[in-house]
């Protein structure tokens, strides 16, 4: 098989790249490892045990072992995520380079046209928490239309632009023109059919080769790092792959019975005419967030002060994640400008950032929240925002066009390339950056 462009991964970034390059005249093949279709039910986070649409990655947070689920389906993690869309602030982008605030703004406008996220009414939990932090609440938009989730695959519709989409096609490694890693990339090697059918991610037996002049990796922060490394790129070739990843650390606080009582077991299911109850939309897990700066709460935030995002989850997580044990209603407290970096090891294990300065800020913030809400001595439960980024950063592994430095025919355009994590969930930023990188490639037409 041959194509002008091979895009690896049909997550948010992959759908953007595939559509835009096809619109620019390229014959594009989009390869997606997953072969199950995600539920279109808005509000559902199908990441629990038994999900057919995620890959689970081992992670360590200090001494704790966690599993990180990542979408493995058309739409990627955007098909299983909370769907909250918040734009990065221009000040988040200044350190990326002088042209990025403009490029991001243009990319975001194009992403907004396609995704058209919508606001939801404030739910009772958010209202309760917002009342304790006057003037600090912000609405967060959701990628949904009525009872349906809108994924990037829905919104960018790669097949509608002529893209050839193949599911159950897991790329095992890149192919090099002269056999040596880091020269010219001339295609990708799919995992043998046995590995695809079993979904076993360490089965890297070679299968079909897809030949091309241009490969764009959009396999996500963990997936793209694995592919670069499995193909021989890393420290030895001067590419610090996976060495400085970022995440928004989060702790969870249990809410008292008074708040939990407002949230009956049926709360959160919005019946839509013409749909079965089991298919009805769920309310967004997060309709609003509360933001404050740690040093000066509740006044204006100093630029370098730790910035906190309080996430009043509308329902207990077992209402929206199938298969998990019943759990209390909790709210999240996250640090949005962490100092710490983590890494992804060569064997794929994710070491989440574990910086004591961040932990101190986070637990101090949790104490403020517990105090304001009268939670008593609530014990924070360590968690993670699922916002991992930066395994192939612009300026370190790829240049400002997304091209892997010193390598011909190979680009990365997903959450891996974010030079720093913005002070919000990364979904919208990933889409905006993908649009910006796609616009550059479409202008250059290197195929
Ligand atoms: C549970 C969860 C909840 C989240 N909630 C939010 C939220 O509410 N708001 C927010 O802003 N962000 C949220 N995020 C983060 C957001 O979803 C991600 O930042 C975003 O999806 C990253 O997009 P991506 O294109 O980089 O990669 P991904 O979404 O990870 O997509 C990568 C795609 O590549 C495919 N792939 C991987 N390896 C291969 C391979 N070797 N061959 C072929 N295909 C491959 C995968 O199957 C997948 O489809 C959440 C993430 C998770 C996991």
From TrEMBL:
Which Pfam family is one of those matched by this entry? GMC_oxred_C
Report the superkingdom from the record: Bacteria
Ranges where the Glucose-methanol-choline oxidoreductase C-terminal domain occurs: 383-434
The Glucose-methanol-choline oxidoreductase N-terminal domain, residue ranges: 159-250
What's the cofactor?
A: FAD
Q: Which UniProt keywords apply?
A: FAD, Flavoprotein, Oxidoreductase
- Signal peptide boundaries: none
Spell out the InterPro entries in the cross-references: FAD/NAD-bd_sf, GMC_OxRdtase, GMC_OxRdtase_N, GMC_OxRtase_C, P2Ox-like
Per the record, the similarity remark reads: Belongs to the GMC oxidoreductase family.
Name it: Mycofactocin system GMC family oxidoreductase MftG
Species for this entry:
Dietzia aurantiaca
